[in-house]
Amino acid sequence: MSLLKHVFTKQKPDTSNTHSWLVIEPSLYTIKDAQNAYLSHLFPRSTESVLTIPQKLVIDMVKSSLQKKEVRDKAVPRLPSVIPRLLRSLRDPESSARHYVEIIDKDPVMSAAVLKLANSVYFNPIGARINDIERAVVKLGIDGLRSVLSAAVMQPIVQRESAYFSHTGQKMWHHSLSCAVACELIAEHREQEKFKVYVMGLVHDIGKITVFSELCKQFKLNGEDVKPGYNAFTPALNMLAPAVSYWVAKDWELPKDICKAIAEQVNLDVGNKLSPFGHILYQANMIAECHATVRGKNDNIAEMVLKELELPSDIYDKLDQLSREY
Q1: What is the per-residue burial (b if ≥16 Cβ within 10 Å, else e) of 300-320?
Q2: Whole-model pTM?
Q3: Backbone angles phi, psi at 320, to 5 degrees
Q4: In the chain, N or C terminus with fewer CB closer than 10 Å?
Q5: What are the residue ranges spanned by the domains of the chain?
Q6: What pLDDT, in 10s, does the model give residues 89-108?
Q7: How many other β-carbons are positioned within 10 Å of the β-carbon of residue 212?
Q8: In angstroms, rounded to a whole number, what is the distance separating the alpha carbons of residues 141 and 152?
Q9: Domain 3-75+160-323 belongs to what topology?
């Protein structure tokens, strides 16, 4: 897109839930640039040879099988029951911190995960150590506790490892958490529902995680000597992952506005009209990808992306805080 076209098509969207928001990509860092850079971040390019016939057959099989709900039900863990409860609590004026403490206290693993997040730089910038759930509630408040609890229960679903890329699961989790935080910050800026879009950011890449995990499983079962690399994973992820994210969101019976927003990321392109949540997810995802791949290497481009998307100037600083922990 030319600079003139970029300038004259820029719109200042309103905060109405019925308003369509236009996709306008940064002039020097496009949607495709962000996607390709992020996939290279997940799967460092190597000197691998072209795909073998068995690898091609595995990729075709995974593409076909994940379109079936019965396959996804086995490939994707159930949505933790606490997520729907937290979403319902947004409409319940009687929701209390005590209710959440009771949920957390029943599960030692969850308690440990919540305390770890509650003590992170992002959620606890002052650094006063939080040693128990009661104090975490006082420190974080009800909104912060919702976010920490959601992240704690979603992390094991997102951060799945493989025999081929040992850190890919961790990178995917960090991206999901970064996207969730970016969604929350953008929503606050636009006076939208913060917690709901935070959950949306946490789950938005479940399709990428699912396709990656299924490919790893099937490559392993295939028992080839040739180690799959960038060329084996990225075509299927590009083609299938956004649609699988939408299918899983529907399977999980997430709120309609979250499902719609995730569906709008399929075939995302300049000029598309998105729902308010869909536009927040588009921008938050791009910012999280840019933070992981460009920030620190080319800060001029990173700052330009933030400016041209008309986003709060402190988003990268907030994501830097997350990076210190993960």
Answers
A1: ebbebbbebbebeeebbebbe
A2: 0.87
A3: -60, -40
A4: N
A5: 3-75+160-323, 80-158
A6: 777 656 667 777 777 777 78
A7: 25
A8: 16
A9: Hypothetical protein af1432 (1.10.3210)
